[in-house]
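Reopening this ticket.

The earlier resolution said the output was attached, but the attachment link was broken on my side. Pasting everything inline this time so it's all in one place.
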Amino acid sequence: MTENNIQGKRILLIGLSFHNYYKHIQSELYNLGANEVKFVESKWFPEDWYLSSNKIYTIIRLIINPFFRIKYTNKVISELSGNSYDVIFSFAAFTLSEKLIKHLKKQNPKLISTIFYWDSFHTWNLSHTMKYFDNCYSFDKRDCDKYDDLKYYPDFYLPANIEIEQSEDKYYLSHIGSTGPRYIDRLIAVKKLIRVIAEKKITSYIFLYSPSQRKWKQMLFSLFSWRQFKYLILSQKYKKLISHQIITLQEVQDVERNSRAILDLPVKTQHGTTIRVLTAIANRKKIITSNKHIINEKFYNPNNILIIDNKTPEIDLDFFNKPYIPVDISYLRIDNWLKYILNNES
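Inline output:
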């Protein structure tokens, strides 16, 4: 019989605060019977310079604040002092260090540790953190093929707050994403697709978010990085496409619920399917994506998913009119997903 690593357990949750996904995970773990779920935010540190698109600037930050990781690790250890945990579950490994994991395992000898990588190692190479965990999962099959101890499983999705029948197709197509030096290809692809959308008179909602930066900072960063320089030029050229205002997860869900199809433009190094796409499939929305690897997923159906080329994107209008073929992906709903990842319950 598989051990239950949720029911009655004290769980330490380590992850990003991005879109408050951790709150949904935390809430669902309580619903599944967890005794306690303590959240620790995973932060990115300057000494992880190899993860940055601007290495020289990051090294300068490291020189200015060389003990950021040590200080934050000590702060976390202090906050957790005196508390015992049965399970560590992490979905972002930036904060992890040998010191932190050794401390937790010393304080909790029977600790079970699991991590889920929802970014490709080709985007953020955190493969060295696998050694800290008993169980390692990734949404990227290519990474799993490379590492024997890394098991493949797709991302989760969040159940809709309203019935599907209550949604309406206000937009034929919507895309909500971020842009920046690491996502230049997405900005270029959106610009090309806007031309296609206009030519074919497709009603759409396009939103690209980029954190606001002072002009002098952008120019300074661009001196140290070709990618930063290229993004500076393109962000000025296409500035009407970019917003510096954050959109909430609820707003994202409202737009996508009222769209016939969702446009997915992952970074070209990513093979896995995102939470956004899976949520759309669960809500019976069509997908237009540049991720050609989605064809290998068992939920792929050409009636529901159209694969396009980023460089020469074309959208066949007939795709919107083809009947949607219902696909059951309830096994990836957040509650079932957590039971599989933590308990290996299929």
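Reporter confirms the inline version is readable. The chain has a mean pLDDT of 84. DSSP finds twelve helices and twelve strands in the chain.
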